[in-house]
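Researcher: We're teaching a course module on how sequence relates to structure. For the next exercise, students receive a sequence and then see the predicted structure as tokens, so they can try to spot secondary structure elements on their own. Here is the exercise chain.
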Amino acid sequence: MTDLAPLKRALLSVSDKTGLIELGRALVDRGVDLVSTGGTAKALREAGLAVRDVSDLTGFPEMMDGRVKTLHPKVHGGLLARRELPEHMAALKEHGIETIDLLVVNLYPFEATVAKAGCTLADAIENIDIGGPAMVRSAAKNWKDVGVVTDAGQYEAVIAELKAAGKLSDKLRFALSVAAFNRIAQYDGAISDYLSSVTFEEEKLAESYVPSRTLFPGQSNGQFIKVQDLRYGENSHQQAALYRDLYPAPGSLVTGVQLQGKELS
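Model: And here is the predicted structure for the students to work with:
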């Protein structure tokens, strides 16, 4: 893993364009070829960066209003191939598949969409990302060979390592993989929570239908983030930690600031 070659190719497909151009420039400055989709490719080109459309990589056009664009063996093969296995590399060569060394994806804004007043069921469904999570899972599974970036807050660390070594360290790639699987779990949990809360009314299923939602769905997917380790648990010989909801309520314990006293237990 530690002798991984410098990055050659990156695939970028983001809904949130924050920091995209800075990352793109950092990659191009180090000789990395950029491959991209739709609006992401447009933004990169407008910034003067050379970029190849993903349809040129796959040899297959985007279709169905962009619903199908990256679901292709030439994308997933390039992400999943294990570089140390000759048979994997031979398969790439046989089928004309290029390796993808870095994936930069943030997903359709499903959570923000369903949080809006008046969100229709059609809008919610259309903001369920399919290709993005599929690529993220492929890249995250193959973390030994591929870096996967799922949040603009990770760009700084990626750029720093590129400047220092032209590639990403094992430690950073593994951390990015963990963060990627966490993000997919959050995303799928949000979709499940929303759809589980929808009161199905078949006679109202039009494009403009704003569904009623129950407070108590049949399934709920809790997601929690660690705040800190505690001194001990219920008893002094036990370990414990404090976690918070993804979106904690204002004024709750985990949003408070400790002013004095020992660390929490």
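Model: If you want an answer key for the exercise: The first strand starts at residue 9 and ends at 14. The chain has two domains: 9-197, 224-255.
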